[in-house]
Amino acid sequence: MTAYALAQVHSIDPDPDVTEYLRRIDATLDAFGGRFAVHRGKFETLEGSWGALGLILIEFPDYERARAWYDSPAYQEILELRTRHMAADVIIAEGVPVGYRAEHRFEGHPA
């Protein structure tokens, strides 16, 4: 089942380290089948308060590969380039199978 790494970005200190991180992150995704689905494009808050500058969503073939990417030596090597200059909440979430419907959540189907 597809999985996602999601980052809610709160602040960015423009620093050459951030540019270096962005230059190198794509190569860390390749071995795990990851790809950017959303990368701080146009968005608007429809409900509640969204205190973030942007959203980053990276898609993976499954949860295990998403987690393996985050823990990989290649990603860990560049992670500090981001964390020193960017405040963000980051999670990994499992998607739902093709054909899933919200009503399944209450019918004993895995969600």
UniProtKB/TrEMBL annotation:
InterPro entries: Dimeric_a/b-barrel (IPR011008), DUF1330 (IPR010753)
Domain annotation DUF1330: ranges: 2-96
Pfam family for this entry, one: DUF1330
Name of this chain's protein: DUF1330 domain-containing protein
